[in-house]
Every structure is written in structure tokens, then in C-alpha cells.
Design brief:
alpha/beta; six-stranded mixed sheet; about 40% helix; globular; binds NADP nicotinamide-adenine-dinucleotide phosphate
Amino acid sequence: MGTLARQPAGPDLSDRQTKQRSRPLQPSRADLVIDRALIGGRWVSEVGGRTFAVLDPADGSHVIDVPDCGATEASAAADCAANALRDWSARTGKERSQLLRQWHGALLAHQEDLARLLSREQGKPLAESRGEVAAGAAYVEWFAEEAKRAYGDVIPEPTRGRKLIVVKEPVGVVAAITPWNFPIAILARKIAPALAAGCTIVAKPAEDTPLSALAIARLAEEAGIPAGVINIVPASRHRAGEVGDAWLQDFRVRKLTFTGSTAVGKSLARGSADTLKKLSLELGGNSPFIIFDDADLDAAVAGTMASKFRNTGQTCICANRILVQGSVYAAFAEKLTAAVSRLTVGPAASGDADQGPLINDRARIKVEQHVHDALGRGARLLTGGKRHRLGGNFYEPTVLGEANPSMRLASEETFGPVAPLFRFETESEAIALANDTPFGLASYFYARDIGRVWRVAQALEAGTIGINEGIITTEVAPFGGVKASGYGREGSKYGLEDYQHLKYLCMGGLSA
Ligand code: NAP
């Protein structure tokens, strides 16, 4: 089992600074930093000599090498999940619930270690990582409870002498493919309902963040979840398609649950056609965040800060376009700019920064391009607007005024700490602007007028609407999108259904 490597500093930092940064992110349990794949209860290190490096996004330093799995390992994992399915699906909901509860306890008992590992590979501030571990654990707890409530139905019979019964069954082996931005919470909210429903799972975490997935799988193993029920197949970006294809073509894999970009989601949907899998696709967003003239402006600023700048703006549901009514535009812009200017930027290891680095070079370059494009098309720079003096992938928290629909940031997710302000005058104009996107993941608005609140909530095209709230995700409510943001729901009582199918029993011959 590997330990966190201490490598020389990246281009912008001295050795001494790097060491100071790395130590606070060292988990107390070294065996939670895992350089293996988990296939059928075996921790596999050898996959034909192929590995890929996990890097610390704060300075580019090397953390550890992980096996770079391909089609062979993906198929072996599906074999193990298929073998484990018979026993796991035959257990009672209560038995599965007890094991999920034990896993929930283990996640919380190791919250600090998991948070350190998450911050090390993902870069988010430690406080946010602790919150993400708690959120992931909350999904496990929720579905531990739901495992006992997979109720069916008895349908009143239309004909004498029959009974019509509907039972819910696990779909079977599930494949999960997850992104790097919430590597624990997103994976937990797929594994937990799958296991609660009686499914087994094969999962591929993102190249940037395999360590969190492997660590929570180890805790699941320690909690007593049997071998083969959870399988983790790390792969580099180069081999992601190979792993995905192996599962898409495998008829035993009955469901694919994917969170990531719309482009990859569409290609996975196409690839799943031959084996007709059940699909959940949690895809990209382009969330509007509307501030009407009757809003509580201080609350709206607080909500914008929470929505836009959490995880350094790398959140699928974060405010991407902030629409502000003309009469409050100047006041809102001033308050938001003041709040953003107070944000501190630094590595997670520093312990006190509000914003971490972006995940990698590609992410930082996209943010730079969006800001450059917006300024070239008439945006006004209110604060930030360039790489942070820390260098690497750190970017200054930025506010841009006078944004307009011709800018790239109006139609694409920026996925970074950039808050563009668009001006509007009327309610109908705001709704038209908000819905002028193929995406429909989340929308937000701040208003007090009760008639407006209802009208706007109905008119916005999104799976989730935040009304006078900037933070909307919870395990007890359904999460998911409409339009190009995908389909399926995670969390809540609805989340279990994505991992079940209905079986209708028509029982005849009952007349005396
Ligand atoms: P991405 O490129 O689509 O990657 C997501 C996952 O898919 C990663 O594990 C990736 O592996 C894998 N992947 C990429 N190409 C694949 C292929 N051909 N076959 C199988 N797997 C493949 O997304 P991202 O840029 O990392 O993540 C950000 C996106 O996710 C944003 O659009 C964001 O809005 C969206 N997101 C949505 C939600 C939601 O709930 N709706 C939540 C979070 C993020 P590699 O990492 O190795 O490339």
C-alpha cells in the first residue's frame, strides 16, 4: 500500500512551502491511501505494468501511482459483481440496511482522514472536504433507511379471481462513472442506493481523484460489505473509454449511472443502446441566478457567494450566469464585488483559504479563455480577472459586469471562480434569458413578492429551483436535471427507484 509521496515543489513553490502544505493533508491511517484497484474483494496492483499518477492540484506534485485499468480489469470487475449479485440481492432489506449503516459509521469515524485525502487530490479547502464527507455519509445513511422501505403495490383487481401485485426488484449489476469535483459525495450517492436496492456495482472514478473512491471502498469492506459487491476500477483519461466500453457492451451490466459532461453522457447513452441499459445521466449545467428588484440584496449576495464560489466554482449546479434587475444592478454589483474581494486563495494545506486551485491546467485555461473572451466583448472587470500570484492553477476570484449573451460564458459552463453579471429589466426578460440554454440542472432566484415567486418557479426550466437559497443539495430531496442536463434522480425516496425495476405478478385461478 502506498503512502503520500513528498515530492519536490512545483514551479511556483519552494521545497519548504510544499512540505508545510503536504503534512496537514496526510491521513493518520496510511492504509487509506491506496495504490490498487478493488476487484472482487482483491486489492489488485498489477494490471500489465500500467499506472497513472495522481497529482496534487495545488502544486502539481506527485502523490502516488495507481493502476491504470483497461477492458480486462473492467470485465473482471463485472464478473465479480455478477457473481456477488445472487447473495447480495437475496438478503433482506434490513440486512443490507445494517451493513450500509456500518459503512455510514465508518465514513464519519474517518471523516478527517477522508477530508485530508480529498483535499490533497482535489484541492478544495479542508472545511469543504469535511462537509463533502459528511454529505456522502448522509446519502449512505438515507439509503440504509430506504433499503427497508422498498414497498411494492397491490392493485385492486378489475376481474374476480385474480390478484395483481407489483414488486420492486434490483436492476442487477450497475456501472458508475463519476467526475472529480465531488468524488466522495457523488460516488456515495450512487453506491448507496444501488446497494440498498440489492444491486452490486462496478465504478470508475475520475483520473484526477481515484484515491477518495478507493478509501471509501476500503471502509465499506471494513464495515462488512461482502467481496464483489463494490468494485473500483481506476483508469487514466486515456483508458476511460476502454473501461466504459467494456461495461456498455456487457449485457450483465443492467444499468449505467453517470455524472459528468453532457458530451460524454450522450456518447455513453448511444453506446448503451445495444444492451438497452437503464440510464441515469447527471450532466452539465449552466445555472441562471436571478436577483429581482424586490430581493433582500444582502441575502442574495450571501446566496451568490455560496452557490458561485463553493469548490472554487467547480460545481455543476453553481451560478454560471447572474442576472440582475436594472434598478438594483449597481447596488448588487457593489456588494458582491466587496464580498468576492475578501475571499482568500491558497492551498488546502494552509488551513484557512476560502478558495483552492482549479483541478488542472485544462480547467484553468478554460477560465482564462472565458474571461479574456468576455472582456473582449465588452465586459467590465470589477475584481480579479487573472491568474493568482500563487501561480499554478490558482485563479483570482473574479466579478465581471455588463456580461451579455454573445460571450462564451453565457452559453458554456465556466467551472471556475468567475461571476458574470447580466442586466435585465422585466420579469419576462429574465425568464427568457434564464431558459435560453440547452441545459436545465438548477436555477435560482431571489424575490419576495409571492406572486412573482410562484410565477418564476413555474416558468424556469430546471430540475431544481433555489428560491432565496444558494445551497440546495440534500440527501432527502431529488437531485437531477432536465433538457441537456440529463435524466434520473439521486437522493430522496425517488433515488432508490433508479436502481429498481417493477415486476407485475398477475395471479389467477383464485375463484372457488
Ligand atoms: P467528463 O469529462 O464527462 O468526465 C466524467 C467521468 O467520465 C470521468 O470519470 C471521466 O474519466 C469519464 N469519461 C470521460 N470520457 C469517457 C468515456 N468515453 N467513456 C467512459 N468514461 C469517460 O466530466 P468532467 O469534465 O470531468 O466533469 C465536469 C462535468 O461534470 C461538468 O460538465 C459538470 O457540470 C458535470 N457534473 C454534473 C453533475 C450533476 O450531478 N449533474 C455533478 C458534477 C459534475 P476521466 O476523468 O479519466 O476523464
